[in-house]
Amino acid sequence: MSELPYIRCLGCETTVFDPARAVCPGCGRCPVCGLKRVKPELKDCPECALPYCECCGRCPKCAGLRYAEIDTPCECGHPHNAEKLEDLIRYEAAVGAESRPFDWGCVMVILALVAVILLILNALR
Question: Membrane-spanning residues where (predicted)?
């Protein structure tokens, strides 16, 4: 395990895990882009034949994590992209996460479109 703070999964919203893992042990999604990276899902531990915990993805007997064998980076670059890893920790930390910055660019585009529509409607009168 790394010394990074733990994050909450955006896919299943229940699992808390090390952000340096390639996939969430609960749902098998990339924690950055949400891409489902496992097919089919593992329900039981191959070593103990016990079901994995639905919340944390650990085997109750051996404490092995589901999808631990997946260590290749995702298409989005996680976990090797340092900038994305920092953002993930900053905004999705299980404790002490910051609120995401508001995207003013989208608001400006929407306002511009509304203004254009109003101008067109006004011109048609």
Answer: 102-124
